[in-house]
User: What shape does this take?
Amino acid sequence: MRKKIVAGNWKMNKNLQEGIELAKELNTVLSADRPNCDVVICTPFIHLASVAPLLDASVIGLGAENCADKASGAYTGEVSAEMVKSTGAQYVILGHSERRSYYHETPEILKEKIKLALANNLKVIFCIGEVLEEREAGKQNEVVKGQLEGSLFDLSAEQFSQIILAYEPVWAIGTGKTATAEQAEEMHAYIRGVIAEKFGADAAENVSILYGGSCKPSNAKELFAKPDVDGGLIGGAALKAADFKGIIDAWK
Ligand code: 13P
Assistant: This one.
């Protein structure tokens, strides 16, 4: 049975003190009313080491939002997968559309990051999704398949079992314009089919595919009710404990 997951992506929000407060609040609230799904918070690098000891790892997992495409050495300002792992984090988001577009991360760079993350026993939340023009041109399947092929297709089946996918249509991120549950289901089922073709039926059945893009307490239930939507990757609504909890409770 694949896992149901709600993951928060804090992006570049919250200073250290604010981040610690939010992590503590979430830990208290979710320890008192345990979720029916896996919960992960992905924070800026500087928060990880302070947040890790505040979380009950049986209730909330911790992840980074990125890692370097090099193992170690003279790469000023970069943070390696090994460093992320050493904080106590268990996950890393890779391939977010903001990294692809603002920081020019190519499929080849992402391939390196994924290999290093997996080699350091981090689970990877790998993001894929089309921009508006691509959807309007009816090219969303092609684009998403290309993103999967470009960064994941040389993994072994065992390595692939450590990957969580997140379908995030770029036109829905931070816009308030959510994909309909039907649009999400159509794409998630397509993605599962692509994975089945490449890695086999079991891998496709077992991979969690999260939806991301303006997911909030008011629409999470409808999205998560779809058979191929295994949870969400949440931006804005992950920054307030009550909103994030509202989305987590969509699994109840
Ligand atoms: P929003 O939930 O703010 O639309 O962001 C989604 C996202 O990019 C999560 O990675």
Observations:
- The longest strand covers residues 38-43.
- The chain is about 45% helix and 15% strand.
- The pocket of 1,3-dihydroxyacetonephosphate is lined by residues 9, 96, 168, 173-174, 212-215, 233-237 (CB under 6 Å).
